[in-house]
Amino acid sequence: xxxxxxxxxxxxxxxxxxxxxxxxxxxxxxxxxxxxxxxxxxxxxxxxxxxxxxxxxxxxxxxxxxxxxxxxxxxxxxxxxxxxxxxxxxxxxxxxxxxxxxxxxxxxxxxxxxxxxxxxxxxxxxxxxxxxxxxxxxxxxxxxxxxxxxxxxxxxxxxxxxxxxxxxxxxxxxxxxxxxxxxxxxxxxxxxxxxxxxxxxxxxxxxxxxxxxxxxxxxxxxxxxxxxxxxxxxxxxxxxxxxxxxxxxxxxxxxxxxxxxxxxxxxxxxxx
Length: 272
What we know:
Blueprint lengths: L3 E4 L5 E4 L1 H5 L4 E4 L27 H14 L8 E4 L8 E4 L13 E4 L4 E7 L3 E7 L5 E6 L1 H6 L1 H13 L6 E5 L12 H11 L5 E3 L8 E2 L1 H11 L7 E3 L14 H4 L6 E5 L4
Parallel strand pairs: 4-7, 5-6, 10-13
Antiparallel strand pairs: 1-2, 2-3, 3-14, 6-9, 7-14, 8-9, 8-10, 11-12
């Protein structure tokens, strides 16, 4: 099922998963719309850009996160936000109930069953993925660029989430957010070879495979294939047919705009 586009009373536009909503999981995939940041971070910027001297302010980011949490309907308001420094790997942080957590450690996914916390990962072309147990009481937030997909970050997060559920085969729900689409994700032969090694004949190399041109990788297809191997079929996974590169009015894109651009974020918390 596709994600649903919402615009809140405060002007923030975001996307939500019908599956996660039915499970009572408060969450939101942000866009760039409805914040306070100036150009080139206009306007709902949720991350400090690396590789450039042009920076947004922490005050702007804090206000933008507050607005996104409010826009999601109140289920995220008042919860402590936990986040990681994303490094395109497969490490997963467990945010344990009633235990201190220091945000900013190197990892690309978080899991929790703590109703006082919410999880956050940033994106601007890479794939944001949310996972939840069927009852919504344990959740994961995952950042998966092509390196993370190859490294197996989605499977690592699913395993940690099932550990929290106390069952290695516990049914999970998933929501796959906006990311760069295959027509705009041109890669070199080394990256294409990594996907062929990982996926075999099912490798999601879209075009122009076998020609003199460079191949293009379909990251959403790669993620859906990996979810399927984890027992999370299409009936248990929502996704967005939305390209961050192609939709400049709604999304930031590092590949389109370079390092001096903003970041979207996804927020998620366990069902109350």
